[in-house]
Every structure is written in structure tokens, then in C-alpha cells.
Amino acid sequence: MYLEQINGPEDVKKLSGEQLTKLAAEMRQVLLKRASIHGGHFGPNFGMVEVTIALHYVFESPKDKIVYDVSHQTYPHKMLTGRKDAYLYEEHYDDVTGYSSPQESEHDHFTVGHTSTSVSLACGLAKGRDLNGGGGNVIAVIGDGSLSGGEALEGLDFAAELESNLIIVVNDNDMSIAENHGGLYSNLKLLRETKGEAECNLFRAMGLDYVYVDEGNNIDVLIKAFQSVKDSTKPVVVHIKTQKGKGYAPAEKDKESWHYNAPFNIETGEPLGVPQGEDYSDITAKFLLEKMKKDPSVVAITSATPTVLGFTKDKREEAGKQFVDVGIAEETAVALASGIAANGGKPVWGVYSTFVQRTYDQIAQDLCINNNAATIVTFCGTVYGMNDVTHLGLYDIPMMANIPNLVYLAPATKEEYLAMLDWSLEQTDHPVAIRLPGGPVISDGRKVTKDFSDLNQYEITQKGSRVAVVGLGTFYSLGQSVAKELEEKTGTKATVINPYYITGIDQEMLEDLKKDHDIVITLEDGILDGGFGEKITRFYGDSEMKVLNYGLKKEFLDRYDAAEVLKDNRLTKEQITEDVMKLM
Amino acid sequence: MYLEQINGPEDVKKLSGEQLTKLAAEMRQVLLKRASIHGGHFGPNFGMVEVTIALHYVFESPKDKIVYDVSHQTYPHKMLTGRKDAYLYEEHYDDVTGYSSPQESEHDHFTVGHTSTSVSLACGLAKGRDLNGGGGNVIAVIGDGSLSGGEALEGLDFAAELESNLIIVVNDNDMSIAENHGGLYSNLKLLRETKGEAECNLFRAMGLDYVYVDEGNNIDVLIKAFQSVKDSTKPVVVHIKTQKGKGYAPAEKDKESWHYNAPFNIETGEPLGVPQGEDYSDITAKFLLEKMKKDPSVVAITSATPTVLGFTKDKREEAGKQFVDVGIAEETAVALASGIAANGGKPVWGVYSTFVQRTYDQIAQDLCINNNAATIVTFCGTVYGMNDVTHLGLYDIPMMANIPNLVYLAPATKEEYLAMLDWSLEQTDHPVAIRLPGGPVISDGRKVTKDFSDLNQYEITQKGSRVAVVGLGTFYSLGQSVAKELEEKTGTKATVINPYYITGIDQEMLEDLKKDHDIVITLEDGILDGGFGEKITRFYGDSEMKVLNYGLKKEFLDRYDAAEVLKDNRLTKEQITEDVMKLM
């Protein structure tokens, strides 16, 4: 195998055209096998094999610096830059992360996992080079799906100002995770159809030079294109047509499903894992579709991840105009929701915790200052969620819950969630966000009759004394376990509280606890800094009440084991009970 | 005066073409007089007089809904929609805000003060209309300067998806606050030069229909253009060339200075106010320019507000390639800074607290996960800063200080600031942000020798007992006053602490205080929720220490009086001393 001999880009340069083509075929086989066993981002990498080979054939990485957007297409790059073993050998599959990583290799320049950042980051590398009088090419690689994101469009606009070398490789496979959304894709289509000849050209309109490559999976053609722009003295876009999932029939056919995959049977493409039980995405889609049938003003919004809300293709068709995917454009999703709410609609934006981060200003300005009754549902805001450093769901509480006017709710069960979602859709007084709990869906069949309009009313679910346990969202059940453990160990029956509201405290209840409680503990599924528990501690600051806040340390975790992290943060019932007993 | 008879858009429609032209002249006179006495946004409004008249002549506001970007060009709109008195009569000047406001009028649909949001918000209004089967036009008005912002470009891209009525009016005066930056402006120039005929067209490339109006200050022409797009069944851009500051010679000549103005002499254009003393912008520019001369890798970055860093036109020229204005593109500013730092440069991004909000994800992902040593200087993060609801500087602590890896510093004096800035530029271990204090610049001449690399080392500046006062940044001097007041009232000499670090606590010092202190008070210039003080309270949660946190309530204030707000939040030395004495 040629791949076995590739220890770095210098080895790519030794191969002939024919050998490079064989290398591409090998890389696809290796990618396919690894994907079938390990899972990962599939389609984007399969389309980029030849482009990556050609990049490393023509440019001199790491002197020439390649910045990959969102990293979904970095696997071939990793294979050619000293990390082939992590693709060739099953026992080494976990030696690399799924994202570009300077810790892994001098050929990676940033840890990247959110989309639409590569052009602006590459502008920075180029400017740093120019300030110090250095040389070398800077290359940003960006997929067509990422182009709709605000930061990417800002970057394309700014790039022209550099007036020096910057090569922007646009990998156009005519897909985002799902289909692309937005008017610029009609221009990409026009450019593909005219082989780059159309006068109306988004990139030229942004002040950039432009080269089109029609045969984006032909190594020879790609090498010539890259040679033609190498050492360019001004920013230039190389627009390359590739095929997402190329080389694996099921992935070529169903590009959306094969953007990312779990382990699967290579022969059939069928997933190997047993289908999981009910999840919050399915629950949400079912609920919203029923609502939509009764109420034409209900509309579900996603930003390039339609399935976060459970809206698979069939459900999107069922919803019709009542489903909107804005593409990768989270800021616009929030503004859109605010505008819809301002004009009589009932919008629900579904978003992963890690991506809601892209909209602080839109939540504050477009939504909350205007106090429009839009609903945000935050998925995977939990230690049990995605665990790559770029995709953590541990920060949305400090980010969102300190924005005035927002009502941020934390259900502990499916029933609480649906009651909150229903309430939120029907009220017109507040912007509302709902943070879904982590771990398996808990359904207790309880009918939730609480009126969430009475803001910040916590609920005592077990009345005890001396110790009160406030368990937020995911950790409400941990709170129950702590109370049980404590009673078993000490005979003290603790008070257990479901706070529901992340954004405010129940002053009356907290005041009342002073009568017959000495210790309050708070439990939250996220970092402690700026979070929920600290507000309760502040309330008790001038009193005799002892308060212990449990949550995670402020840090960037990466590919962690949730159980270990919880233990490290003393978030097991045994550890908490031990701490409380010491204090009693 | 015709203007005196305009009580709403219906009165505009009654006027003849000649009368409308006279109305425009009157509006300019009224704007000029008010601006000379009251100050406000100048240039954008002067250019938009005719466009606004034509909009209200053709469309049926409020059934047809007009959304103004950033609101800098809403004064003529306010004059024609029932709020003329606030422009005609000095005693009513403060009856209106400087921004669009649904509280003021049914003709305003959002409270807007940050740029680049109008297209996405208008998409929401249009979608809300379509869901409910309603009619009417939705019109977004956006200035060319705002087009470079990510949310605006996302909005333009998304708009095509609506497939229904949306009219995007681009007010092209060839200026942002300062000159425009970015490649798209070369396309706007091409379109102006070809009277909209050029094939390469940013708006068409975004999938939108397009109409060009060359005579953007000619009411007749504007009326015809708007009539041609009224009730359009798909999104269309009306690109209008206007003249910023039109009608006032000094403003036509120096567009940057006349974007916003303080009260001035109409005859000469000279400002009436006495020039203020030294401010942090001047101090920063002076320091950075000296640094730049010695070190070619130092680079100052701003995002359309170059003077926030003190970089007036002459200083920008002096800095040459070592100054970069990215235009309105805050996200790109952060990514650019991160990239420069990753490639050997020393970037400093200067930004107002209210606009740093636009970059949560970029600070977290592009900068802090990558731990690149870029510097952010946050201006006006204080109760003494801008006081419009859309421009508050009270939230940057909860937003930024809970992001891992960031070192967020709070100087109390000019000397501390410059020592921090110098340290930050020369170190390579951390992303650093520095929050400038509010109020007049305090300079104590003290030589600061502290090594800020030893993170989270607070400083005891007065050793006392029983009570410790931790005064952060702006409020360090309030802390000193409280200690003095307390000593006078009770004889107790309090410990006074300058914490310097917003992002971490000095555990050792805080632990040590337990020995001979019963009360700790924290003072911070921002909201308490998610802020600095709560972290200290959490530290003491399980101890006997009483902690009082002082700062602002989480709320959206608007056009407030700082002294009143401080009093309402018990932030005077007398109130704090009273509270402490009660607790002692």
C-alpha cells in the first residue's frame, strides 16, 4: 500500500500521477473501513480525498499553512501528515480527534469544530506572516455548506483587504449536512453549470480573484489548478466541484444520512447498533407536528441540523411551510424567530448547546430587548452530550441565563418538557428557552399542571428539614438520590426541590428554608462559574445558611468520560452525601 | 411649515411633488438645529430624508412594516410618524430615543441599536405574515456600512428562501462610520458606476432581484422606484445611492466626524463643548503607536470604530499596515486576532463592551480553545458608559469571564491598564481581555511592577480586619471610600483588596481572610448575575464568612441616570457602609 509509506507531505510528492490515483483509492478504502467500525464524519471526507492529495503535492505544509473549516474534511489531511496509523489500524483509531488539532501535528494550525471560521482565521495567519515579513502560502479550505455562516461571509468580504497571498479553496459538493439553504447556492449552481464562466459571481462580487475546477476528484486537474494559484500575491478563490460521499454507493445516494455515520455494515450500509429508544428530538417533532396541524402559526426552525428537532426529510415535507431550515446561519435563526413572534407567529428554534453560543448578541438584542415570545430549545446542554472540546454543552447556562428578560427553563422529565414547550408556545410575554436534560429520557407519566407564567416558582417535591437539595434539570434525579442516601446514612430527611427556572430564584421559598434548614446544596449540569447555583449562594451570602454548589469546573474538556468527570467534580451521590455529612 | 402638519404617513401622501421637496428641506433644517443643540447621529439621517419621505408616500405603514438597521437613519422616519415634536421643539427633544422603538410608535417594529440585523428581522416579519396568510409589504432598510456584518450577509442569503414579499432598501452612501472595509464595497462601487448595470452583482449572486436608484436624494425618482417594487411577490433589493451628511457642508466634507455629533455651532461646525481631558482611547493609541515603532508584529484591530482605540485618521496613517479596521465584522476581528497571534503577531482588538457581545463563539472557539495570545480591550464596560438600552456595557463580565482559558483583567487606574496591556502583548500563554474602568481616568503615578503571569493573585492594598472590601476595576475607588467611611463610623479599619483578575479567585488570600475577617464585600461595575462577586460568595459558601455582593440588578436599563441607578442598587458608600454595619 502506498499509504503505508506516507509519513508526511514529502512522501506524497514522490509519487507519480498514477500512483497518486492509487493512493486516493487506498485512502477511500481505509476511510470506509474505519468509518464502518468507528463512525465519524463520512461524506465530506470522501469527497475531499483528491483535493487533499493535490494540496499536499503542490504546497509545502507546514510552511504553507492549510486551515480547514469545521474540520469535517480533515481525515485525508491527517492521513497524509504523519497520522496514517490512526486510519490504518483499528487499535490506533482513537489516537486522533475528529477535528484539526495543533496538539496532534504541526500541519494543523487551529483546533476547529464550529463552521464558517476558516477564512477569517486564515486571514489572521496571513496578516501575521505579512507583519513579520515572512513567506509561504495560507490556504483556507471551506465547504459550500459553511459559506452561509456570517463569519464566513464576513471573512470573504474582509479577505480582499489583505492585498497579499491567501488561497480560499471552496469544496462545493452542493450539500450542507442536509440540503443547502440560501440564495447564494443558486449562484454556486450557476457557476458549476457555466464551469465558472458566469459573470455574476459571488466571490468576484466580494472583491476576490476566482478559479473554477470542474473535475474536483481528478488529481491531475487539481494539481494544475493549485500550481496556478501558488504564491499568488492576492486573495484568490479556487472553487472546486466535488462529490460528497464519493466512492461509496450508499453515501453517494443519501448524502444527508451519510454526512456523519455510526458504525455500519459495509455491504449493506445498514447501521450496526441497535436503534436507541425514544429521544428528545423525536418527542419534539411529534409534539410540534401535532401542534402545527391545529395552528398554522406554529413554525419549527433549525440551522442546518434539521434532525435536532426530529425533522427528518419526511417530517419536513409533512410540516411544509411550517418548517424552516435557515442553513448554517444561527444568528439569522434567532432574528427570524424574533421577527416571526413579533408578527403573530409561534416559532421554535432547535439548537445544540454548543451552537447556541453563536448567537449571544442576537438573543440579547434581537430577541430579549424586544421581549418577543419566541422559543429556543437547547439540545445536548449536558455533561452526557457531545464530548469533543469544540462541541461541549457545558456553557449555555452562564451564556444565556444572565441575559435579562429571557426565561430559561430546565425540565427534568419528558412530561415537564412538553408542558413547558406547550406553555411557551401559547404565551406572548417572554422569550423562552428550554434546556433539555442529558442522559436517557426520563418519563414519569406525571401530569404537569404547573403554570409557568408565575416566574421563578420552584417546587418542593419532598419536604424535609436541615438539608435542602436543589437539583436542576438533568441533576434533579441526582438530587433525589442524594436525599435518599443521606436519609439512609443519617436519618435526616432532606427537602428536595425542583427549581424549573434557571434564570431566577424563588426568594420566598429560599427565605422560608432558613427556618428549619442549615444547608442548601445546588446541583447543575454545566460549569459552576456564572451558573445557577451561584445565584442561590449569593442570596444566602449574609445569612447563616451554608451552601454547597455542585457542577463542573470551568475548563475545556476533551473526549472525556462522563462518569470520570462527574467523579472529579464530586458529582456522585456518595461524594455529595459525604460532603454534606461533614458539614452537618 | 409642512412638517408641522405631518401627524402620520397619511399626511405625507397629501402633499404634491413640489411640497414634498419643500418638506425635505424643512426636515433637514430641523435636523440640523436639533443636532447642533442636542447631538446625535448626523450623517446617516441627512442622507435618508428623501428616501424616508418616498417610503411613507408609497407604502402604508404600519400595515407595511419598515425595519431600520441599527436605527442611525430613523430620525426622518420618526418625524413623519407622529413624533415630529421631538425634532421641532427643544423642550421635546428627549421625548424620543435615538433608536427605533415599538414603545414609541406602531410604526416601529423592533428596538434596534446594533448593526446588520434588519434583513433577518424583516425576514421574520415576512414569515410571520405568510404563516398567518396576512398581506402587506415588509421593508428592511440597511446602510452599506452594515452590509459587512455577518448577520446581514446571512440575512441576504436567507431572504431568497422566503419566496414572498420582502423589499431590502440598501442606503449606499459609500461610508460606514469611517470608510468602508471589505471587498464587497468594490462591487457596490462598480454598481454605482454602472448605474446598477454590471453583471457581477452581490445581491443577484445572493439570489435576489435588484433595482438601482442613482438619484437617491430625488423624491420623484424614489417614489417611482418604490412603486415598481411595491407588492413584489419575491425578495428584491433596491440599491439607492445617497449622500451622507447631505445638506450641511461640514458634514458632506468630513463624513467620518459627522457620523455622530455632539452639540456644535451651526455656522462653523465647531463643537460647543470644552474638549475633555485624557481618555482611554487616546492613552491606548499613544501606547500602541510607540510599541509599533519598536515592534513590527504589534497590530491594532478595530471593527468599524477605529477611534475606540484612539486611531483617528492621522494615527491610522502613522500605523500603516500595523492598523487594521475590519469594518463591521466583529466575529472576523476575533478570528483575525487569533490567527495573527498564532502566527507570531501581537494583535490588540479594541471594542465597546456592547459590541463584544457579538463574538461569544469566536472568543470561545476561535480564540480561547486555541489559547492564542491575542489581546482584547473592552471599552465602556461600565455603568458610566453609553446608556441606551441597546448599548449597555453591563453584561460583558458574565459573558466573557466564564469562558475557560480567557484571562480577563480589570485595572483601576491608567498605570494598571498600561502595565496589563504591556504584559499581555509580550506574553504568549493566554488570550487576555482588559476591561477599562468607567468614569474619569484615574492616574496615581504608581509604577506597577506586578507580574500578571501569576494568575489570580489579588493584592491587599490596605490591611485591616473584620471586614474585607474587594473592589473590582471601576469600583476599586468606591471600595476605598467604603473602607474610609466604615473606619470613620465604626473605628474598624477594613482590609481593601484590588483583585485585578475577573476570571479567577485568589483562593489562598480568601482562605487567609477567614482568620480575622467576618465579612467580605465585593463591588463590581456590571450585573451581579453570573459576575465576579458570586464566585467569591461560592468560595465562602460552606464557611462562616458573610459575603455581600454589590453590583447591578439583571435588567435592561434605558437612558438612565448613573447616580440614580447606583443608588437603586445600594452602590453608594453610605448605603454599603450601612449594610455592613448592620451585619457587624
TrEMBL record, chains A, B:
* Positions of the Transketolase-like pyrimidine-binding domain: 278-444
Q: Which organism is it from?
A: Jutongia huaianensis
If you read the UniProt record, what top EC class would you report for this enzyme, in one word?
transferase
Might you give the EC number(s) for this enzyme? 2.2.1.7
Q: Which UniProt keywords apply?
A: Isoprene biosynthesis, Magnesium, Metal-binding, Thiamine biosynthesis, Thiamine pyrophosphate, Transferase
The similarity annotation says: Belongs to the transketolase family. DXPS subfamily.
Q: How does it assemble?
A: Homodimer.
Which SUPFAM superfamilies does its entry note? Thiamin diphosphate-binding fold (THDP-binding), TK C-terminal domain-like
Per the record, the pathway is: Metabolic intermediate biosynthesis; 1-deoxy-D-xylulose 5-phosphate biosynthesis; 1-deoxy-D-xylulose 5-phosphate from D-glyceraldehyde 3-phosphate and pyruvate: step 1/1
Q: Please name the SMART domains in this protein's record.
A: Transket_pyr (SM00861)
Which PANTHER family does the entry link to?
Answer: 1-D-DEOXYXYLULOSE 5-PHOSPHATE SYNTHASE-RELATED (PTHR43322), 1-DEOXY-D-XYLULOSE-5-PHOSPHATE SYNTHASE (PTHR43322:SF1)
Query: Which molecular function terms from Gene Ontology are attached?
Result: 1-deoxy-D-xylulose-5-phosphate synthase activity
Which prosthetic group or cofactor does it need? Mg(2+)
What Gene3D superfamilies is this protein classified in?
3.40.50.920, 3.40.50.970
Full protein name = 1-deoxy-D-xylulose-5-phosphate synthase
